[in-house]
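Fold it.
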Amino acid sequence: MLRHKKVQVVLGKGLASEWNDDHIINFATRVDWVEDFMINALADNWDDADETSGTATDISFDSGFVAVRLNATGGAGNISTIARNVLAAQANFTNGDAQPLVEFAIDVDAPTADNQTHEFGLFDEATAPFTANQDGCFFRIDNNVLWAVSSDGAAETKTNLGAPDQFAVYAVKHTAVADFFYVDDLETAKATHAANISSSDLTIKLTCAQRAGGSNKLNCQAVYFSGLRQTS
């Protein structure tokens, strides 16, 4: 329970009678956590154990922005990837019943146009990046096309969202019956899927891969996560 006070005009007086002792907080409007990469070291909240890139992921300051910087180098097939840490280990931490919403401020920095180069969103921790039919709901860049993807681990539903902007704010909302995908406009979904919806617990991952066409990068300035949202 939280006491809720009446909103007063400027210089207005608040009275004790205006406090409401039985007001229950509305978790639907609360953000559970924000990662802006400005305070914590990468290892405090993120796990990069699956990384094979020749360039280590780091947090750096450039052009007025602090961001985590993924850079896939070292040969075609190498990946740069991070996943959310829970209790000092990479682990799934949410499910569809909690209606998780995750938002990213991301710069994909001119993807190469050969095969799958970027993935970010909600995934089952047990699935390896870029493998077929990963459990989750996420964005994928493939041949420089942005896709919204839902998968239950056996098959995918995906929507072509066109060429990706270099910088955008992306969001995925996952429920037990549908997934919603947003790009910049966080009110109107760019895609809504009601098939191949994951029933697994999920975590947050961001990944980019080096392909034959060259290295790829992914810069993320912030991640926002909340749960217990409405389904639409």
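The chain has one helix and 16 strands.
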